[in-house]
C-alpha cells in the first residue's frame, strides 16, 4: 500500500510539471524586441494566436526609379537647363520663308504635313495642295472636316514653338538651321486652329493640350525636338514636363522617322543678321484699274515688307497662297 501511494504521488508530480511547461510566458515589455518577437512566433496552440506585425516601411517613390533607356524621361535628363534668353531680334522671318519646300519634293511643308496626317485626303490638280480631308485633332480630341481655303480650321503647330526655340538657343543659329527647325516634320503637327493660337509661343510650363490623354505624347515630342536641335529647357519647363511624364514614365521618345537635316541647303538670307535681305522688287504699284503685278515669290514679298499679302492687296497672287486661304506668305 505504501508503495502504491508513493507511485501515485510521483505520477502527480510529473503531470504537474508537464502542465507548467505548457504555460505560455508573457513577453517582458521591458525586454528587447527580440524576446517579444520570439513569443509571438511560438504561441501555444491552446492559446490565442497573435497576428504577426506587417512591415511599415514605405515603398520607394516612383520618381526615385531611374528613367529607362529610350524613354522621354531619360532624354529629358540629358537636356541642359538654363534661363530664357531675351527675345531681342526675334521675328518669324528669321526662321526662313513660311512653308519652305525644305525637302525639295516640289510641295510646300504645310501641305506635306496635312497630307501625312489627314485621312480621306483629296488633292488639287497640282498634286500638292490638300483640298479636303478628315482629321481627329489630338490637341482637343475633336474631329475636323478640313476644306482648303478655310484657314480657321487647321493650323500647323510647331510643337516646340519658334518663340520658345529662339529663347532656348535658336537666337544663335544661322538661318539655315532655323529654317530646318521651322520645317522639320518631327516638330510639326496639324492642330485645331483655336488651340494652336491659344498656345502661341508657350512651353510646357505655360500651355498644355486640353486633351489630357495626348499630353504624354505631346511633351515627349518636345523633348525629342529639343534633343535633336540641342535646345535647352528652363527649370519651370523641365519641371512641367516631368510632372506630365510622372503619369507615364515609360513613354518612349518619338523616333525621327523623317530624318530631316538640321540645316536646309536653300539660298536664303537672314533679315536680321546685319547684311540685309536679298535683292528683290519693290512693292508692286497698282495700275489705274486697281490691279498690280504679283510678287514673283514670297521672298520678294518679305523683302518688300509686304507680308502677309492678302487677297486684294497689291502683289497678291494665287501662286503665293499655298493653302488658298486668301492670305499669302504667312
Characterization of this structure:
About 22% of the residues have low confidence. The strands form three sheets. The chain has a three-stranded antiparallel sheet with strand order 1-2-3. Strands 4-5 form a two-stranded antiparallel ribbon. The chain folds into two domains: 180 residues, no CATH class; 53 residues, no CATH class. The chain is of the alpha+beta class and 330 residues long. The relative contact order is 0.13. The chain is built from ten helices and seven strands. It is globular and about 65 Å long.
Question: Which tags fit this structure?
Answer:
330 residues, alpha+beta, two-stranded antiparallel sheet, globular
Helical amount among residues, as a percent range?
25-40%
Q: What is the number of helical segments per DSSP (H or I, 4+ residues)?
A: 10
Main sheet overview: 3 strands, antiparallel
> Low-confidence parts, pLDDT < 50 over ≥5 residues?
6-11, 13-63, 276-291
- Helix/sheet category: alpha+beta
Topology:
Layout (H helix, E strand, L loop, with lengths): L1 H20 L11 H9 L30 H5 L32 H9 L1 E5 L6 E7 L6 E5 L6 E5 L3 H6 L7 H9 L4 E5 H7 L15 H14 L6 H11 L52 H6 L5 E2 L16 E2 L2
Antiparallel strand pairs: 1-2, 2-3, 4-5, 6-7
Amino acid at each position: 500500500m505504501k508503495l502504491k501511494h508513493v507511485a501515485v504521488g510521483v505520477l502527480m508530480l510529473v503531470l504537474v510539471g508537464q502542465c507548467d511547461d505548457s504555460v505560455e510566458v508573457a513577453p517582458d515589455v521591458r525586454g528587447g524586441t527580440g524576446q517579444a518577437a520570439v513569443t509571438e512566433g511560438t504561441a501555444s496552440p491552446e492559446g490565442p494566436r497573435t497576428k504577426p506585425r506587417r512591415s511599415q516601411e514605405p515603398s520607394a517613390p516612383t520618381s526615385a526609379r531611374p528613367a529607362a533607356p529610350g524613354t522621354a524621361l531619360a532624354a529629358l535628363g540629358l537636356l541642359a537647363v538654363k534661363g530664357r534668353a531675351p527675345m531681342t531680334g526675334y521675328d518669324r522671318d528669321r526662321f526662313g520663308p513660311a512653308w519652305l519646300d525644305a525637302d525639295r519634293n516640289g510641295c510646300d511643308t504645310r501641305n506635306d504635313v496635312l497630307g501625312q496626317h489627314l485621312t480621306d485626303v483629296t488633292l488639287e490638280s497640282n498634286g500638292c495642295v490638300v483640298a479636303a480631308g478628315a482629321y481627329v485633332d489630338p490637341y482637343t480630341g475633336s474631329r475636323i472636316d478640313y476644306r482648303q481655303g478655310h484657314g480657321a480650321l487647321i493650323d500647323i503647330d510647331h510643337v516646340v514653338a519658334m518663340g520658345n526655340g529662339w529663347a532656348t538657343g535658336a537666337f544663335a543659329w544661322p538661318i539655315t538651321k532655323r529654317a530646318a527647325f521651322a520645317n522639320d516634320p518631327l516638330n510639326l503637327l496639324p492642330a485645331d486652329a483655336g488651340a494652336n493660337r491659344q498656345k502661341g509661343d508657350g512651353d510646357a510650363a505655360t500651355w498644355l493640350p486640353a486633351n489630357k490623354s495626348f499630353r504624354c505624347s505631346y511633351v515627349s515630342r518636345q523633348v525629342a525636338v529639343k534633343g535633336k536641335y540641342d535646345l535647352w529647357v528652363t527649370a519651370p519647363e523641365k519641371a512641367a514636363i516631368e510632372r506630365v511624364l510622372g503619369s507615364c514614365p515609360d513613354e518612349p521618345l518619338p523616333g525621327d522617322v523623317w530624318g530631316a537635316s538640321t540645316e536646309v541647303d536653300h539660298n536664303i538670307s537672314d533679315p536680321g543678321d546685319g547684311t540685309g535681305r536679298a535683292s528683290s522688287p519693290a512693292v508692286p504699284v497698282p495700275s489705274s484699274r486697281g490691279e498690280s503685278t504679283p510678287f514673283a515669290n514670297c521672298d520678294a514679298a518679305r523683302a518688300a515688307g509686304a507680308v502677309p499679302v492678302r487677297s486684294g492687296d497689291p502683289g497678291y497672287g494665287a501662286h503665293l497662297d499655298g493653302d488658298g486661304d486668301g492670305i499669302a506668305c504667312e
